[in-house]
Each structure stands twice: as structure tokens, then as C-alpha cells.
Amino acid sequence: MNARRMYASCVDEDGIEAEGIDTILSFVNTELGGWPILQGSTWNNATFNFSRILLKLNEYWSSVLYNIGTQIDSKNSSFQGIRFDFLGYLREFYLLANITLLDTDIVTVSELEYLRNVSLIINQQSSLTLQNYMVWRFMMSQASNMPKHFRTIRQQFDKVFQGINTEPSRAIVCGEYVNNIMGFAVAKLYINEYFDQNARNQLNGEQTQGENIADNGGLKEAFFVRCSIR
Fold it and tell me: What is the pTM of this model?
């Protein structure tokens, strides 16, 4: 199972140390347009494309500045709405994938004040500053998958920024990582293992919509529903 292999590779610290950071740096250079803070004057400003790098980061579960995604409607679990803050940006992102966002598509708009302010800040920054910031955010989000030296750097940052004094155990980090990426698959295994047929019927929407959310929301939601059913 992919989830099991993902977890095994995540807890394999010897393998992580052996791999180093060459793979992720290669990804940064080929997919994200490089990192000026490392490349210095050799970084090519002409390669910078704000929309493209945001879209690419979102493909790898790394949202920077704007969060783009879908979420399950709590009143109708068969419905998924687009959740994003700014329709114009969303249209551009979808066009990059040759998808046209229609006027009939439902978009949830929130935090308009943040959008206005961050847009002003973005427009005032150089492409070099924006590229450095977005790649830095991506690298920080991937630090848990890097060798110990880099996880220590991230831990020092978290200690100052969030007051977190110790790094969580590898088992916890990897469990959360797999659930975030493959929550549906993991929840399905959990449901099949611990729920009787009547409970599974409820989760499949035959009885209540609220319980059906667990069938689409990941392991944590499945666990909470199991407790409520019991």
C-alpha cells in the first residue's frame, strides 16, 4: 500500500541522511526556478513567474501567500466547493492547467483585508525577494523530510517563533504527514478494520450526512465518528 510505503520511507532516518538534500535542491532548480539566496548573481531574473511558482508549490502541498484547494461541505458531504480568496488569481491558476473557471462555480471568499494588504506588499517587492521568500517557505515546509542537521535548524526557528522546545517523535511526524497526504486511504483502512457494517453504512451516507464526513475527511475524523457511534 502506498500509505504504508510512504510512512516507512518517512521513518527511515538512515535513508534520509544518505540521500541528503541533492534531490530537493534539484527540484528547486528545475521546477521552482532556483533559489537566489544560494545562486547569487547567477540567478536569472527572467525565469521568475509568480503565478507559475505558486501553482507548482500548491501541487506539492506547500501553500505560500494564498491557500488554494477544495473542502467538503458540512451540510452536503457529496459536494466539494473551491476555497480560495481571490477569483482573479484563481482564474489564472486554472488557465495554466487549461481549465476554465465558470461563473457558475462556487468560490468561498474570505479574509479580503489580508488579500488587499498582501497584494500591495507583493507589488512593492522585487522578483528576487519574492522568489527567495517562496522557496524559503517551501524548504521550511519540507524540513521534516531532510537530514537531522536541517531539522535542527527548523527546530531552532520553531523555538524562537512558536516556543516549541523539542522536535516531535519521528513516528508522530510521519503519522501526521501520511494522514495529511493520504488521509482518505488511511481512513478507509481504519473504517474497514474497526467499524461494523451498520457503522460503515452510516459513514457511506445511508443514515446521516454528518457521519459521512468521516468517510471523506481522513483518519482523525473517522476516529471521532467511531467514538461517537460507540
Answer: 0.64
